[in-house]
Structure prediction request, 323 residues.
Amino acid sequence: MTAPLAPPPELLALLQTRASFVLALHKGPDGDAMGSGLALYHALRAQGKQAQLVAPTEVAHHYSWMPGAPVLRQAIEGHPEVALFLDCDGPERVGSLQAQLESAPVVAQIDHHKGEPFGDLSYVDSGAAATALLVLRILKALNWPVTADIATCLFTGLATDTGFFRFENTNQEALLAAAEMVSLGVVPAKVAERVSEARPASRLRLLGRALNALQTDAEGRIVWTVLRPADYEITGCAVGDTEGIIDTLKQVEGQRVCVVLKAPEDELHWQASLRSPVVDVAEVARQFGGGGHARAAGFDAEGTLDSVLSRLTAALTSALSEL
Prediction:
């Protein structure tokens, strides 16, 4: 196993010497964003430092059980010394909070995506299975204790970004870290139940509407579906409730790329999620101003459904033809 990339000494010194931090997560924070953010939040507070956790949108219901999840806010209080972006492959991922965060005296980044590093300090390792692993490396380098709550947060981030250890990014470091978190009291079955098994009926109704709208293109190699404002209104769901729908699409026989296009508010503002076992969907997403992982990426786009879908299918068809 290649040795994991160690945290930069400058980042460790920053965490040790500064007194106030704002930890920023991307909109629609997923398990890894919440897990890495909450873990570092708990660790900083345990060291007697001021810390706040922010994201431009609220946390989805299936992550609201995580230790400390209620501290997440959609506004920044005061003027923290350090703005730390977690699980963000670009500063624009924090939406309306970007300008205020970038005005902090020090801007730092901890991430495992492929995007260009930004800020005054960056700790980016695209070979890591989850940002939660980078936070674990930091805590160990600082000799800060990993409590049961921190372990639960880290395990949740790691488990969700590896598809509960089914995705190809599941490596030796990920499994060893998971075993360590279990030794600290984490019960994997309980995490799995809370994240992906115990779901309100409204989420299943939303899944049903997504499956009913399923389409294929490029001889069945591209599978896509659309969720419109009416789908959210009728089911009573929020955009965070769509997590996991795209994984269901991956079950379609013969698919090479899966797409979910979401318009939670109006049909001129779309959020796209992409998955593929063979195409570098992060490269495709970057053509639309987005990013992510080679096998899981996303972007936001404005325009009609036909215009967005036409451009996206053209880009995906071109990527498939190059394989």
